[in-house]
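Justification of computing resources. Each target in the renewal requires a structure prediction run like the one illustrated here; the chain below, 120 residues long, is used simply to show the kind of job we budget for.
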Amino acid sequence: MKIGLIQASSQKEKNKTLEHYLNEAINPNDELINFGIYPDSKIQLSYVQISLAIALLINSKSLDFIVTGCSSGQGMMPACNTFPNVQCSYLPTPQDAFLFSHINNGNVASFPLGLNWGWS
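Resulting structure tokens:
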């Protein structure tokens, strides 16, 4: 499975942490591709712009699954779901992630990257 990681600029400092834990969680024969956005990047991309990139990556069959997010995670989810063939869910808890993977058969996971990472 090809898995992508890409998130909005508002949470770019979380990129390396997400990449680290995703690499620990995926199967050895899965491939993780980190599209950023990286902490040192000067580019500012909104969740709307990222959702378009996600739709292109899913619909071109370049990736099978994408991990994403924004400050709340709730902006990214509906932005992604406006595109055909994209099934994105908001996953604030492990229970939500379990249900999403076992029931909804989605291809994009949106995490609240500004939630529970400390104050502000």
